[in-house]
Amino acid sequence: MSTTQLAGQAVDVTGGWTPHIWLGAPAPGGLALPAAHPTMAWLYSPRGVFLDEECLVVADSGNHRVLIWHGVPEQDEQPADVVLGQPDGTTEGPAAGGRGPERGMHLPTGVLVHDGRLIVADAWHHRILVWDEVPRRSDQPPDLVLGQPDVSSAEPNRGAQCSACSMYWPYGVGIIDGWFYVADTGNRRVLGWADGIPDSPDVPADLVLGQPDPSSREENRGEQVGPASFRWPHDVTGTAGLLLVADAGNHRVVGWRPLPEADRDADLLLGQPDFQTASEFPYGPQRGDRFRFPYAASLDGSRLAVADTANNRVLLWDDLPTDGRPADAVLGQPSFEANGENRWSSVERDTLCWPYGLCLHGDRLAIADSGNNRVLIWRRA
Question: Where is this region: Disordered (predicted)?
Fold first, then answer.
């Protein structure tokens, strides 16, 4: 349990959250290193995770694959049941084995299961992969590819000018109120389809958020940061009537309520004092209301979790903060002021090193602890 000192007494800063399951590399000697060759149990720099009652899905990004556990894992280092993007559980490398993009992946990041469909952001192939059912056998090809004209293509923006059908490093995906969203990070925008996942890669997005038109792709719209721009929009989350975007490069999370149907200013801001500020908070003692490169956010009901990646911690709010108030809990650090990798010590069950992705589901929180080559599932009493 992480505690800090207040008036001479130890105070729990975790809000009752404790680490429960450790998946991936163990830590002999205090270091969690990946295996020399992949296995179905070990991970290398995982960047995305999804968790519900039916399955756990991990973007094992450094091994260029996605691992699936059917059911919630119940023991440490439990091997996955299914691997996608590789021919087997011991092969590594982007589009490995000379198979190309048809069955391979290149740095998959965002993962999501919605209405029984599996969605993967295959970031460095500049596309989204969709399976109509969560696969139960390994090396199963996707049923749909978005962002490219066909399954064999992998060029940024389809090898042409940026458009409402193309992508460049899409890192995050989300579905809110029937809208399908993609954090199209390399194009510094969020794409949205009002009718959900399109059935063809040639269906243009109904919404281009963060740019003045579908062909523009400059950081912060080529201007100073503002309420309608992104630097590195990396993840999307939300709930009924609310869209949140983790704008990592501007060290903030921004939100729209109600859902935007066209490009417009954000209504909600976390991590910065105002929409015109994008400064990185100094590296020294931190605060509970500022971020350094927040790469992921997850909202479940009114509870919000943010991966404050460069501060090696996760911040949690019991209710969505509409007033910029500090977080209610911090995971991975002994206090809101600390920010060291693994607390400048060895890897322990409650330490973090560059948490890159997370998924909040009820009283469980799955964290892709990328720098420690593992996924941690925390539980709240």
Answer: 202-232
User: Residue 166, class by beta-carbon neighbours within 10 Å (0-12 exposed, 13-18 middle, 19+ buried)?
Assistant: buried
Distance CA 375, CA 335 (A): 22
**Which residues, at least 6 apart from 9, have a Cβ–Cβ distance to it below 8 Å?**
none
N-term to C-term CA, the chain: 12
Task: Confirm if 209 and 179 have CB atoms less than 8 A apart.
Answer: no
- For the record, the structure tokens of 91 come out as 């092969």
Residues 166 and 208: beta-carbon distance below 8 Å: no
Question: Global pTM?
Answer: 0.96
List pLDDT tens digits, range 301-353. 999 999 999 999 999 999 999 888 999 999 999 999 999 999 999 999 999 99
d(CA 256, CA 250): 17
DSSP classification of residue 309: G
Tokens representing 70 are 């059917």
* Helices and strands per DSSP (H, E), number in the chain: 0, 26
Residue (of 379, 363, 375) closest to 49 by Cα position: 375
pLDDT digits (tens, 9 = 90+) for 151-176: 999 999 999 999 999 999 999 999 99
> CB atoms < 10 A from the CB of 44, how many?
20
* Per-residue model confidence as pLDDT tens digits over 184-234: 999 999 999 999 999 999 999 999 999 999 999 999 999 999 999 999 999
Indicate the class that CATH gives domain 12-380.
Answer: mainly beta
d(CA 320, CA 302): 5
SS (H, E, C) 137-188: CCCCCCCEEECCCCCCCCCHHHHCCCCCCCCCCEEEEEEECCEEEEEEHHHC
> Is the torsion defined by CA of 197, 126, 87, 150 positive or negative?
positive
Sheet holding 170-176, edge to edge: 170-176, 179-184, 189-193, 207-209
Q: Where are the domains of the chain?
A: 12-380
Give the DSSP letter of residue 103: T
